[in-house]
Amino acid sequence: MPKWRCRLMWVTRICSRAILFSFGYHWIKRKGKPARREVAPIVVSNHVSYIDPIFFFYELFPTIVSSESHDSMPFVGTIIRAMQVIYVDRFSRSSRKHAVNEIKRKASCNRFPRVLLFPEGTTTNGRSLISFQLGAFIPGYPVQPVIVRYPHVHFDQSWGNISIAKLMFRMFTQFHNFMEVEYLPLVSPHESRKENAVHFAERTGHTIASALNVEQTLHSYGDFMLFTKAAELKQENPSLYMVEMAWVQSSLHLKALEAVDFLEIYLQMNPDPRGQVEFHDFLRALRLKPCGLSEKMFEFIDVQKIGKITFKQFLLGSAHILKQPLFRQACELAFSECDTNDKNYILKQELQDAVSLSIPNLNCEEINGLYSLFDVDNHGKIGRNEFVACLKRYPLLIALFAPKLLHMSSSISDQCLLEEVL
């Protein structure tokens, strides 16, 4: 970095301390010391408040890895840009790959500042530690864990389910706010065992959780997305819809955005205050009527056999079907069976004929409701892409076409897929 820029950045760092002072952080308690940049080129910390990056900019002058959405935040956005930010779009594979390459490049050269990451990927209330993203650990350099605490009496300064404007206002109205920072011993990858990034992240997470005296859970940023969506849709207790997405993603390879889509469907079922759904509400959302097949579908989700399902059960059951290797093939086969004249679309009567083997005696209103799920554009016919997209959104509905597909006897594998649902 040019000398003129270094001098200018010192002025900016002093301004950062002035910002902290104005927010009521008149003194900040520290424990331990930051390691030299040559020893620990990467720093990782728990993430509690938007104050965290302001403090680290003043204290360590690092390069930070941040979501692009943070760029527009007051005070913080300006400071993040000054920290030579590495932007990342968490939903883009190419963006994540680029960010990891940038972390490697800057961590490998002492000409660059150390790299700061908040591996949780979002803020928490500090009373638990959620699962870590792997960006800080893939490069394989030693990391220095840092923990941040905000002791309080009257006002919890964590940035959770509260707007940034209200949080800033509450901070300004307190005479003094407390902040404690503790630098922990370095954590290095086991070179002899060629430790992978997952184990490296787990060991680092355990170190931070032990120092904080909290539990590390399998929640992730995906759970924050589910919480936010539930709150946006006026649910009384949005935390009921958090499902430990880190485990779900690793076990079923389900993306967070897919989980949010399933939550929207589930909330259409009108869950009770405990977040549970009964059989009749389940049927209403899927446009089905009580019958032997719909009862089997509900029982497939209701693993506890109590007559009610939770969102986690609905998510796991739906994802289990969706991620079957032959699911897409089964959808294509179902469309081909319904499209009797090979015209590449399905009419209402054809859909009725196809599902009548599973659910007989559907009246006009019932078939119209089911048809509306597939015919999203409401133009009177269902194209192939519409049909497959609907079944991906409502994977349980593949069971409607089971008799036709099983009758085809195309392969044992196809039958196993459908029998998994039934």
UniProtKB/TrEMBL annotation:
Keywords of the record, alphabetical order, are:
Acyltransferase, Lipid biosynthesis, Lipid metabolism, Membrane, Phospholipid biosynthesis, Phospholipid metabolism, Transferase, Transmembrane, Transmembrane helix
Transferase among keywords: yes
Its cellular-component GO annotations read: membrane
Question: Is Cytoplasm a UniProt keyword of this protein?
Answer: no
InterPro entries xrefs: EF-hand-dom_pair, EF_hand_dom, LPCAT1-like, Plipid/glycerol_acylTrfase
Gene Ontology terms: biological process: phospholipid biosynthetic process
Family the UniProt entry places it in? Belongs to the 1-acyl-sn-glycerol-3-phosphate acyltransferase family.
Q: What is this protein called?
A: EF-hand domain-containing protein
Q: Which organism is it from?
A: Erythranthe guttata (Yellow monkey flower)
